[in-house]
Amino acid sequence: MKIAIACPASLPATQFGGIMFLAIEIARESTKMGNEAIVYTTDLDFANNAKVFNRDLPDDEIVEDVHIKRSHVWFKINLFFINPKMYLQMMRDSPDIIHTIGVRSFQSFVSTLVARKKNIPLIISDQGGLTTHPDLKNGGILKRILYKMQTPMIHFVINNAAKISVANEYEKNIFLNFCSESKIEVIRNGINLGKMKTQTVDFKKKFNIQKPFILFLGRFSRVKGIDVLLKAIKNLKNRPEMEDLIFVIMGVDFGFQKEMFRMIKEFKIENKIKVLTNPSRDDVIAAYRE
């Protein structure tokens, strides 16, 4: 079976996080089962943000046993990446089924157009708060306008989906506002233990961490609650139980890094925090393994 998997980003852009890795793992496991699985995505490159698109990345390559086809992003609005060539790639390849991840994405819109044109099943996943994301109410005016404009597109994608794969009951309840329960399947996220190996032998030694640590790993974005974490550290820093602990904050800049460093300095908590920007996948896994 020819399976098309659509996602806003793929390797090497590991900073994009969860849905990127989900697409990669689905493609890898589908290929192992004897299918021809291809990830259709943008040319987002590895960087300390989600703004660097690289025309020099191959349009078509196999990375870590995953077949990836990229197309260049003409322009972006926040995390809405416009890469029209993806439509031509998918139409030309004629997949038997499409699985798109990230319902608010341009890639899901394109996938829906192709599925309708080819009359093939469309599977959708979101892996997040489709209607409950904090930016929907608390984001800047441009973000909120964009999200409002996306509403007809979201209905278009969901209405044309044959099945909706959700990770838990929370996400299922979100989609019940758009469609019947019969369309939704709960498929919990797994973990590929084979990918938990790392070349970073001693994480604490590499980064000169002398004490036990509490780890925060994620995008440097206000919606991830980093501001709340920093305020908590400020309030707790002088407690006896905090004397032999530090906080390690690892991630990439999604608009909050400058403010994060300002808060750390203002709260005088530099000695309680170690910030690691733009970490490699090896270092991320090593931090988890400590």
Give a structural overview:
The protein has two domains: 192 residues, Rossmann fold (3-Layer(aba) Sandwich), CATH 3.40.50; 93 residues, Glycogen Phosphorylase B (Rossmann fold, 3-Layer(aba) Sandwich), CATH 3.40.50. The model has no long low-confidence stretch (mean pLDDT 90). The chain has 290 residues and is an alpha/beta fold. The strands form three sheets. Strands 3-4-2-1-7-8-9-10 form an eight-stranded mixed β-sheet, sandwiched between helices. The longest helix has 15 residues. It has eleven helices and 13 strands. Helix 2 packs parallel to helix 3. Helix 9 links the parallel strand 11 and strand 12.
Quickly list its features.
three-stranded parallel β-sheet; Glycosyltransferase subfamily 4-like N-terminal domain-containing protein; 290 residues; glycosyltransferase activity; Rossmann fold; 13 strands; 2 domains; single chain; eight-stranded mixed β-sheet; alpha/beta
Note poorly predicted spans: none
What is the CATH homology-level superfamily of the largest domain?
A: Glycogen Phosphorylase B
The top level CATH class name of the largest domain = Alpha Beta
User: Per CATH, what is the topology of the largest domain?
Assistant: Rossmann fold
Total number of distinct structural domains: 2
Percent of residues in helices comes to: 25-40%
Proportion in β-strands:
15-25%
What letter string, H or E per element, gives the SSE order? Answer: EHEEEEEHEHEHHHEHEHEHEHEH
Largest sheet: 8 strands, mixed
Radius of gyration: 20 Å
Class computed from helices, strands and strand pairing? alpha/beta
The name of the CATH architecture of the largest domain is: 3-Layer(aba) Sandwich
Number of strands: 13
- Give, in spatial order, the strands making up the sheet with the most strands: 3-4-2-1-7-8-9-10
The 3D shape can be described as: globular
C-alpha termini separation: 41 Å
Count the helices. How many? 11
InterPro entries: Glyco_trans_1, Glyco_trans_4-like_N, Glycosyltransferase_grp1
Domain Glycosyl transferase family: 202-289
Organism: marine metagenome
Protein name: Glycosyltransferase subfamily 4-like N-terminal domain-containing protein
